[in-house]
């Protein structure tokens, strides 16, 4: 019996999508359906990947095709029409989607900007991007990130999820210095009002040395902006 034209087209579409994954080893997002304008649609939020057996597509790979990296203080900051930021005014970035992807983008944007903003402007600009734990109050003094610098900042090499729920996202961010040295900074974002904000430890953050990226989701290309 001859199959219906719709079933034949569906079979070809599924086969083509599988072939793309097998031949090119691309993320599932590469098989997104085209939009009415013929453009590929950005993926919906994926389950968080913890780099353990049985995981499917790492979130970093899903996100990478829809992110551009913008140069800022020697590092690359991620930006996406889907996940944010929707507003950058001076050194302040706001407007991130209420998704895991939006939280990841916000973490890198906020950690870098809070590390690189200098002088007396820090408090006023940080108030738009951060709160201070445990009471989640607005910052009234500089809270160090652990890698503050008025020079060039390290590159973001990858991330490792610690936990996520709609109110709070926690991850370790891998930093790579100009000499290739790897370090990790612990980052928390809290959903406040209608946006993600960095939740800063009252005594400031710190970085720890990393021997490698085992357990991290590395970005496919090191984001240099």
Automatic annotation (TrEMBL):
Signal peptide residue numbers: 1-30
Pfam families from the UniProt entry: DUF8175
Chain segments carrying region Disordered: 203-225
Alphabetical keyword list: Signal
Coiled coil: none
Record-annotated DUF8175 domain positions: 33-217
Domain of life where this protein originates: Bacteria
Keyword set includes Signal: yes
Protein name: DUF8175 domain-containing protein
Organism: Nocardia terpenica
């Amino acid at each position: 019996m001859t199959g219906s034209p719709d079933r034949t087209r569906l079979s070809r579409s599924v086969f083509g999508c599988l072939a793309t994954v097998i031949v090119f080893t691309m993320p599932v997002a590469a098989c997104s359906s085209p939009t009415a304008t013929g453009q590929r649609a950005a993926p919906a939020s994926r389950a968080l990947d913890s780099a353990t057996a049985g995981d499917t597509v790492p979130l970093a790979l899903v996100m990478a095709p829809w992110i551009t990296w913008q140069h800022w203080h020697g590092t690359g900051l991620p930006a996406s029409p889907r996940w944010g930021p929707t507003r950058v005014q001076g050194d302040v970035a706001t407007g991130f989607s209420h998704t895991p992807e939006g939280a990841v983008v916000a973490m890198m944007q906020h950690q870098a900007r809070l590390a690189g903003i200098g002088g007396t402007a820090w408090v006023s600009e940080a108030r738009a991007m951060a709160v201070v734990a445990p009471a989640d109050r607005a910052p009234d003094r500089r809270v160090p990130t652990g890698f503050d610098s008025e020079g060039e900042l390290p590159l973001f090499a990858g991330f490792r999820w610690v936990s996520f729920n709609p109110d709070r996202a926690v991850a370790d961010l891998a930093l790579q210095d100009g000499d290739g040295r790897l370090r990790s900074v612990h980052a928390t974002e809290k959903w406040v009002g209608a946006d993600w904000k960095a939740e800063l430890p009252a005594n400031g953050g710190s970085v720890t040395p990393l021997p490698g990226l085992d357990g991290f989701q590395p970005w496919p290309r090191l984001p240099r902006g």
